[in-house]
Amino acid sequence: MAATSESPPPIGIMGRSVMNRRRGAVLELPLELLIRATAILTLLLLVGILILLARQGLRLFLELDYPIGRFFTYGNAITDNTTDPEQFRFGVISPLIATFWVTLMTLVFAIPLGLMTAVFISEVAHPRVRLVIKSVAELLAGVPTIIFAFVGLALIVPRVQDRRLRRLVCRRAAHHLHR
Known about the structure:
Elements: H1 18-62, H2 68-73, H3 93-124, H4 127-141, H5 145-160, H6 163-177
């Protein structure tokens, strides 16, 4: 039986007609070009940010004649006079030490808590409780960490602003700085 102009279009793979597949192929090229252009734009923005940071960072060493050795060894970023660029003292040691301590303190809390939770879920918890805990953990894993930071900021900052606690923190910080 020959196909006439009145007969339905031939059925292709997975029930789609040949006409629909051609239409999909026509849309495929512009979408692929759009995705490639977006990827290239993202890479160009990243390279631009890196170039800007490098230019501004190198300006400290080239124009202000700040010694590179001092940058890697100086531990305090506090300045006596913030209006005079010649008096600026920069160092990378303090932020590195702070990053190390924050990471260490996080690990001190996170590793035992994570291990205890894993053992509880796999060995102790009732199957229904296990399902609830796993579901909640999977939901929380989808929340961006910045949201947790905002929640922590909203809950912790008001308590830190309490005068007695602030004085205690300042005294301890001053004690550690003057050692």
